[in-house]
Amino acid sequence: MFKNDYMKEMENSLDLIKEEVEKNLINDEIEKAKRAVNSQLKNLVGLDINAIDTLSFNSVREIISKDASYNLGKYIALGELLQLQGKICLKDNDESMMLNYYLKSLESFYEIYDEEEINNDKYIKDIECLINDLREYDISLDSDMQIFKFYELMNKLDKAEDMLFYIIDKSNNDKAVISKGLEFYNKLKQKSEEELIKGNLPLEEVEDSYLELSKKLK
């Protein structure tokens, strides 16, 4: 009951804050937008922006995990609000901080990427926008791998494959990464032809790529 109430409050609050920040940015009210995001961070996540800036994400995770019943909603709220904070920084011509908040937003969403609630058109659209922005930058392999997993979740299998081969190349053919790639293709082999075609990666291409990766392990 209380969990459902929290989720409803969270969704309503996020809808309102997005509208508010969008208006603030159109009117060049940067500080007002920052205050609005910070207020909702404290309200929905229990942390302010100074704590987010100061603490490592592992420390943020530990704090959120203390109240396990609301983890899902808090990670969604954190991901959405940090994405908004990044947009504010971009408007403020602070690209470095924008990237910092976008990466933390990605980490937050990734904490719950396999939860049913995250596979919601509203959040998937925001995550996809976030990923598109992050693809413009040279980010860590861990973040690259998170993007790969989200493409898989969204059934954008052709993009997942492109990301996978990019990661393999970037990691200098790391065998652990190649093994994860083989696991990915083995999972795809269990999908229906219809699902694979929807993901723009037909079975023939799956099998060809599996063989190509297998050779890299020899």
What's this model, at a glance?
The protein has 218 residues and is mainly alpha-helical. It is built from twelve helices and no strands. Helix 6 (95-110) crosses helix 8 (141-153) and helix 8 (141-153) runs antiparallel to helix 9 (157-170).
Task: Walk me through the structure.
This protein is mostly helical and 218 residues long. It folds into two domains: 1-119, no CATH class; 140-218, no CATH class. It contains twelve helices and no strands. The protein has helices at residues 2-26, 30-45, 49-54, 57-65, 71-91, 95-110, 121-134, 141-153, 157-170, 175-189, 193-198, 203-216. The mean pLDDT is 93.
How would you describe this structure in keywords?
single chain; mainly alpha; 2 domains; 218 residues; DUF6483; 12 helices; Tetratricopeptide repeat protein
The gross shape turns out to be elongated
H/I helix tally: 12
What's the total count of β strands?
0
How far apart lie the N and C ends? 54 Å
Helical proportion, percent range:
over 70%
Overall SS class: mainly alpha
Beta-strand percent range: under 5%
Largest β-sheet summary = none
Q: What is the typical, i.e. mean, pLDDT?
A: 93
Rg measurement, Å: 19 Å
Low-confidence stretches: none
Output the helix-strand order: HHHHHHHHHHHH
The number of domains: 2
